[in-house]
Structures
1.
Amino acid sequence: MNRTNIEHPTSNAEHRSWGHAPCALEFEAWRFSGGWWLVVGVCRAGFGASLPAAVAFLALMLSLEANTATDAGAHNWPRFRGPNGLGVSESRGLPVEFGPMTNLAWRTAVPAGHSSPVVWENHVFLTGYEDTRCLVVCLDRKSGKRLWERTVEATRVERKSKPNDPASSTPAANETGIYALFSGFGLVSFSHDGRERWRRPLDPFTPPHGMGSSPVLAAGRVVVVADQVSDSYIAAFEGASGIPIWKTPRPNLVGGYATPVLHDTDILTGGPMEMVAYAVDTGERRWSIPKMGVMPVASPICVGDRMYVYNDAVPPYEQLTVQMKADRNGDGKISPDEFPDPSFKEAVRAIDRVYGNGDGAVDKEEWDGALKLMRTMNSLVAIDLDGEHSKERWRTTKLLTDTASPLFYGGLLYLVKNGGLLASVDAETGEILRQDRIPGLEGNIFASPVAADGKLFVLNESGKLAVLQCGRDWRVLAVNDLGENCYATPAIADGVIVVRSERDLWAFQNKSMK
Ligand SMILES: [Ca+2]
Ligand SMILES: [Ca+2]
């Protein structure tokens, strides 16, 4: 090839072109955050190019691109749950047993915050908070040394339900720098050497449990989903400047906490009651699939042209009235004013208006009738993605997860549930292959499972990290104990697994392979 350019234009997509190659083919390639490539070949016919040469050249290009993409997949973990939110790294040689004294590469004290660490090349980033200070911390990936810390003052205190906190949203990284969302402020971006590039204050967020969705990078934009009780939206900001590009209103209901994923030039995000695709370029609502979750907590995943989404359960009426004591005056209806969580007022009104008799309150018949109509109870749904022809392939209501997002790895789906329950699921049919308890992993699970090197990593709240051999008959290899509470999803890059506990960031590496 006689010309190779690597450019970093205004977008954070990396662009390469190979022109006037001997076979008279021209190639244009764009590498987007998340490590995927769009390669377009144009045949300049009539210049005597031989077909075998053209095919050989194309094969060479594709193999080069495949290698580059593989490297990106192993080196970086650029957003919540790594490349495009899959929770999967191409890293190899990961340790099975680790802890304070075992296979520890480094351990560094970090500020409070339940957001997850991300990795870009030599840097590990994470967000945190201290009083009203929102913090972005950059560590050296090899040594764990703290390279820099930057502060943005929160402009407000937002209401949060535990374990949500002022630094819950995971930042996103690319070759230009780091992009962080703080619910008490808005967006801020720093370069890799800690220079503030821009800041973009945003209006207060009002999801009932506090902002939990993480920003993602797509085609040079920072995309934010704010699903809340009023003024819900999805918006994109220019990655280079933070300038707003588009903002599309979304339906209001009871809020959402999931992080969107990319598919081609669409950004996909669930709820309320549908999965929606927006054009990354314009924010235009392109298509939707009905009968999805009301209040997404787990994030969807996209595997090729297949999407898997877990639709959370809305509690049945009895749980609201008995456990949450919502019907305070005992008249058999929940009125907006007696709902225990004030920000649910709008949701109660909406359910009565859309599914009820419009008297302003919701009774058992209306509530459970709405649930039945919405068909969202505990369902895992597979969707075949084909633009506006996208359609539901299967759904199963047998599975349960809580906060953790589903994982697709090695052709199988995995779901984890509080109490240490793990299920392997046939990705083609939704059939449960094996569902069992992971011994020693009792308690809540807030981190999402991640996988690499044929292994599955499941972390619970009390800091037990199970390592499992993947497969339909998965088996436990080890249950490690960090001895500190954990809420963040681990990051995996270059043979290292990075785990955030309440006080520390830990990096584990197979010492015998060094
Ligand atoms: Ca009542
Ligand atoms: Ca009513």
2.
Amino acid sequence: MVTVFPEEMLNKSSLERKVLSPPKKDEELFLQSKETGAAREVIEGHNRQRFANHFNYADPYCGNPKTYDHQGNYNCGRCNQAVGDKCLLLKIAKIDRKAGSCEDWEVIDAGDTEMTLYNKHPETASYGIAKNGKGFGCHRCPYASKAYSPDSLGRTLYCGKGDFRVFPNACCLANGAELINE
Ligand code: SF4
Ligand code: SF4
């Protein structure tokens, strides 16, 4: 059989990969590095991208910028898919406009059409209502701490979950917010 891929590319399961294991502060969180400069930012950039891919992390320069809330709340009331107390995407009777949110939050944009899907299960979308009644975001996240110094783009917090610096108003799925009915 003729294939465009050489055999060694099709069977890569035994290929050696680098596995990072940065020092930890405790069982749950990584220890913030005091290192600054380009080499450190390259490491953090990769870690941040990992969180963008697997935990929907977004800020103006990483992940999907349309899922970045410059107000840092990520509440349903400011999402493109909310219409009144209904969500166009989720199969949910009612959303909480003030403190509800899910992994599909998107900035309100007149140029971004939505559709009457009412289809995605709330659990699949990690829908939840923040106990604080206000919303989510790195600035409220128990896994964030003040960065020793901002990175070159101005990220002022350190994410101990993923080992990279973040903007206070960024967010991700691992946000640690206490939820109602949890
Ligand atoms: S449930 Fe998710 S997609 Fe629906 S309005 Fe709220 S944040 Fe947006
Ligand atoms: S600080 Fe919290 S919300 Fe922000 S990226 Fe890290 S885990 Fe996610």
3.
Amino acid sequence: MRTLLVVAGAVVALFLTIAMLGTAGWTRPPMAGQQIGYRGTGMDLIRTRAGNEALAEANQAPAPADPVEEGGEKASAVYQNVKVLGDLSADNFNRLMVSMTEWVSPEQGCTYCHNTENMADDSLYQKRVARRMLQMTQHINSTWKEKHVHEAGVTCYTCHRGNPVPANIWFENPGPNAKSGFIARNNGQNVATPEVGLTSLPYGVYAAFYAHKNTPDDAIRVNAQSALPESKGKPIQDAEKTFALMISMSQSLGVNCTFCHNTRSVAQWGESTPNRVTAWHGIRMVRDLNEDYLSPLAGTFPPNRLGPQGDVPKVNCATCHNGANKPLNGAHVVDAYPELAKPVASADMPAGTPAQPATPPAAPPAPKP
Ligand code: HEC
Ligand code: HEC
Ligand code: HEC
Ligand code: HEC
């Protein structure tokens, strides 16, 4: 009997080992640890070597287009309807059009944005969105250079990766249809959603933390500031929202909490890494992009591009980061396209951008559960 159990145990162990080595989702050596904080604090980024290689491979920046000769007539003189790129030479303008096509619509080509009968025509919503995207990219590379994107910068490819719709976008999440459930209200949580790592934490955190520039500065902060309570403090639900957001941020960057925090005391800035400061600005940048660049496009996007609540598709950390702590392996993608780093001439929507008449006005935001 005993021998039989030993043999059976050995067989099970063997099969489990084979399963572990042969199936996805298991972390197996060799590991590649990277020290993030002071020695002894356990602040390490632990990935597998194979995982690191796969991550680097999946985040290659495309080679920039060959430079064109300087000079020649300006695009504004050659073309009829250029509102953002008029200062470029016509050659440089065309170079950028070709690159934009590779970055955003390689399969669809120029016709994704253009009515090829008349290139100056603005009738396609894609072209009107792209014009705003040009301004947004300039805004990111100029206004947010010091605080977040540094010399690396972004191009359309950072988010789009060869797709008209970036892989990582978000809409307001109405949650499951509460009327048909057993419990009428789930308080915005207890549903396994991917954005919070399939935990039961609140799923509406993007709308709560990433949509508005006037979000109070302490919205994410939940730790007490004093040893003994001096006031009522925040409810436990706020702590759950903060943890949900933090899980989403960690996933977006492919890191763990110690990439930014010394978990001895997560709130203390003095013990946090510089990454946390970059992330703090990243949160503000995301709010800025969503409020000033994406949301005003509500009347431009056709209804089939809007979310279940009628809101526009929006940006979060993963839109640029795509699971890597440095998007596109930290390549300085904007170097070869200085026109995308110029300060935006006017932050407003370009004049003469008609809202699509067929589009109903954006639905009002859903009431908070
Ligand atoms: C992702 C959208 C997009 C794609 C793809 C695209 N364009 Fe454009 N194109 C624009 C936008 C936006 C403008 C207006 C730029 C401005 O206002 O400064 C424009 C303007 C132009 C103009 C100026 C027309 C005029 O007279 O006003 C030409 C020419 C042009 N594009 C050529 C091309 C060619 C050729 C391709 C394919 C290789 C292409 N575009 C692909 C978005 C796009
Ligand atoms: C910070 C990330 C980001 C950058 C950088 C960016 N985009 Fe976008 N883009 C988005 C998001 C988010 C959407 C909304 C997705 C959707 O349309 O459903 C979008 C939508 C678009 C669309 C409309 C696609 C459709 O059919 O709905 C076009 C066209 C476009 N972008 C062009 C560009 C161009 C051209 C550039 C570079 C000048 C650029 N984008 C840079 C995030 C970005
Ligand atoms: C990419 C950097 C980054 C990662 C990774 C990260 N955080 Fe944070 N965390 C921040 C920033 C930035 C703030 C402050 C946000 C603010 O003040 O607006 C913060 C705030 C917090 C707070 C609130 C602190 C306070 O002042 O009350 C908690 C709790 C927290 N994080 C926990 C976590 C946990 C748990 C993880 C891992 C699941 C994690 N964080 C991962 C950057 C990060
Ligand atoms: C518009 C694109 C974009 C968005 C959106 C974005 N980032 Fe970044 N982020 C970058 C770029 C580009 C870099 C690389 C800068 C460099 O190489 O110095 C970067 C770098 C970082 C770093 C430093 C990583 C390192 O290894 O040095 C952190 C931390 C970070 N981002 C956190 C965030 C968080 C958190 C969010 C969301 C709240 C966010 N980012 C949103 C573009 C973006």
